[in-house]
Amino acid sequence: MNNGVIMQLEDLKWAGDCMGVIESKINECLQEFEIDSIQLKRIADVFCQEIERGLKKEKSSFKMLKSYLQLPNGEEKGHYLALDFGGTNLRILLIALLGQGRFKVIKKVTAPLITESYNYITNNVCAEELFDFIAELIRKVTDDEYRYFLGHTFSFPSEQSALNHARLIVWTKEFAVQGVEGKDVNALLSDALIRKGRSNIIPVAVINDTVATILAAAYKDDCVHIGSICGTGHNTAYLESYDGKRCPMIINLESGNFSHLRLNTFDKILDQQSEKKGEQVFEKMVAGKYLGRLLVLVLKELGMLKQEIVLTSKDLSEIIQDSSPNYRKTKEIFFAQIEDTFTEMEYSYIVEIAKRIIRRSARLVTAGYIGIIQHMDFNFNNKHHIAIDGSLYEKMPGYAQLIQKTFVELLGDEKAKNIKVILENQGSGIGGAIAAAIFNEGRLDSDRIIMPSES
Ligand code: BGC
């Protein structure tokens, strides 16, 4: 053999070794996102124990926040305003509740909280500026000659002392507006409405979006006892029966703060770089706000990305279903932010890693639901309908199916049959209106709302 041929063979061997190294690094990364059935069952058990600890007021990673609400009876009627505040878009709705689970949206306005010209979630903004912005939007859908009861869906951990008083404990989802933590958000809203000349709008209820989701779904389905959000953020609420010793009440777990989990290398980096380190650990592993960030961190670790880019969960949904020739869609997503290009092989890795991150999210979320049902009905004897709202559940390809499959994997066919997952994609708005109606009807029939003294 001449020298040239020897060189080529050596080059090939070197290239082959490199591929081997990359593949094994990729496999390691993929493995970091794998959680098997045994681990998931253990997570479900700990979820259940944490609820029970929280109910006994022992140390728990769940905040167990009271809503002062029972389930609706489906006959709530009338016109109510709903404010949905908690994600990247603000929504105001005027809703006619028609009874028997029926409703009509009469008016609706939405506004993003971040555009190129403003940002209402950063710490450069103060409470008054944020609530004035919200009140201004409410002003646009209301008239000053009518009186409106408003249900405020405020999707952050808040301690309630009554249906209409909620104090923000801590911002989540990277919100950082100054002067809101520790304050009564309904008072901030009322003051802003007065500043904007709208004292005819009375915020009568504040609820979490998980609570709103249960209310909206239970308005038409008696078997709904769990409401959850799989969107920008993640959280779940359920109906606590107190074993019949007290009036049942919907409890917001703030399950995104579940902390008994083994974090992988990327979870740890993500947490370190987040606004609130060490908090909302479960949420950072499963919620839409963070899944794209996890993918970026993996690609950086693999040396495939040198610079910072932002991938949204919408980007991820396009990446995992990219069946276009030569990964055209995925290329476009990356090209919008970087000039480097990847090989076909690298694109296939990106798709695989994204799938794994999403799969872990759906599996963890399901383990959480199982833990909650274990607490409510240890043997899964009854029907449990779980209402879910949020873009991750609604729009991420395969996410809903993964949840379904995980139920069967962890519970077996028989028990899994008693569980039905329902998409409740207008829950945050409708639930706000139902809460306002329950308040209004409670003024006439005091059994309808739970007073602080009874809780
Ligand atoms: C908040 C919860 C909320 C969830 C979904 C979390 O970040 O802490 O209160 O329910 O996001 O919006």
TrEMBL record:
| One of the protein's GO biological processes | intracellular glucose homeostasis
Q: Which domain of life is it from?
A: Bacteria
Q: Which InterPro entries match?
A: ATPase_NBD, Hexokinase, Hexokinase_C, Hexokinase_N
Return the Pfam families for the record.
Hexokinase_1, Hexokinase_2
Q: Which UniProt keywords apply?
A: ATP-binding, Glycolysis, Kinase, Nucleotide-binding, Transferase
Residue ranges of coiled coil: none
* MF terms (GO), sorted A to Z: ATP binding; D-glucose binding; fructokinase activity; glucokinase activity
The secretion signal range is: none
Q: Which GO terms describe its cellular component?
A: cytosol
Instruction: Write out the pathway annotation from the protein's UniProt entry.
Output: Carbohydrate degradation; Carbohydrate metabolism
Q: Which residues form the Hexokinase N-terminal domain?
A: 26-219
Q: Give all residue intervals belonging to the Hexokinase C-terminal domain.
A: 226-438
Catalysed reactions, as listed in the record = D-fructose + ATP = D-fructose 6-phosphate + ADP + H(+)
Read off the PANTHER family from this record.
Answer: HEXOKINASE, HEXOKINASE TYPE 1-RELATED
Instruction: Return the similarity comment.
Output: Belongs to the hexokinase family.
**What's the protein name?**
Hexokinase
Q: What are the top taxonomic ranks of the organism?
A: Bacteria, Bacillati, Bacillota, Negativicutes, Selenomonadales
